[in-house]
Amino acid sequence: MSFENCLEYLRRRGIFPGWVAPFCPVDNLILSVCAYAPLEEVLPGVEDGDWLPFPQAMERLVLHPDWDAVGLVMPTETPTLVAETAASPRFSPLALGCCQSVLEEDTQFAALTYRLSDGTLFLAFRGTDDSLAGWKECFALSYASAVPAQVLAQEYLVQVARRYPGKLRLGGHSKGGNLAVWAAVHAPPIIRRRILQVYSNDGPGFGQDLTGTRAYQDLAERIVTYVPQASLVGTLLHQDPRAVIIRSHGSGVRGQHNPFSWEVKGTGFVPLPHRSRRGEREAAGFRGWVESLNPDEREEFTQVFFSLLAASRADTLSELSQGWVDSALAVAGAYAALPPEQRRDMLRFLWRLAVNLSTGGKHASHR
Known about the structure:
By secondary structure, the protein is α/β, with parallel strands linked by helices.
């Protein structure tokens, strides 16, 4: 490997316990990525009041079949990172608890809390997983005032904060970063004052600009948003202009979003002065498409698009991919059965997407 990533960082710095080396940005990323593991299978919930040492939680987790399945979304290195984190001198003293997971037709939410060696709590919110419900909810960010996972994230923060005293850190990767920021900004002032840091690791922005609100301004110096130089996800919707651009060695949208492609230096990420030209063009193209649709059109596209995918009877992207021939036929049949107006709308929306991607968003205002 020609650069150090979070896994290599763990192997280098994981020998130092928390009381020797304080919590740092790469620690945040590691704990945020570990939240993708199905720890809800073994951890107590918020109301249980119990905690499990990280190594013990890992021992129980590996007994569950497919705990290390990565699907199409989770990076292949994730199970290795989780196992090595639990075994490392730096993170093995951590206690885990307050786990919550909800997966419904329009909702994908999961979070857990780590009790760190310095007595603070780190609330980690899971990003979008392999489920179609999770991806549908991500699309809904573009038109809903608040998606269900954001509401759950704010309620989760309040529950944990009221039950356990002390300082708080929040973080997440992808949609998890969005949830961390949303929860912090919408928390009661008495809880916001206890927050040390909020980390959004390539999390998408928000349907409405939150940066001008008083709550966001109160937290602004404690919110850190990391965006890889050619990322698409971290540039979607209204994003904090203070976002830190970091170096990623990933290729394409998926590669840039992969946290194992982010270059680590010391205890942080390698910063860059600006985003790449290609990344800016792709992001402008996608933003242009979103801006070319009004909120009602965005909602129509989302509802119809995912109703078509539901015709495949797949619940995850992996299931769609594994039976792609049957899935494609089912989706085509469902599309043919749509009312003529909806078929025309879908073609119009997809044409706008193609035009904006090809022109770098120069046709955003076209209706």
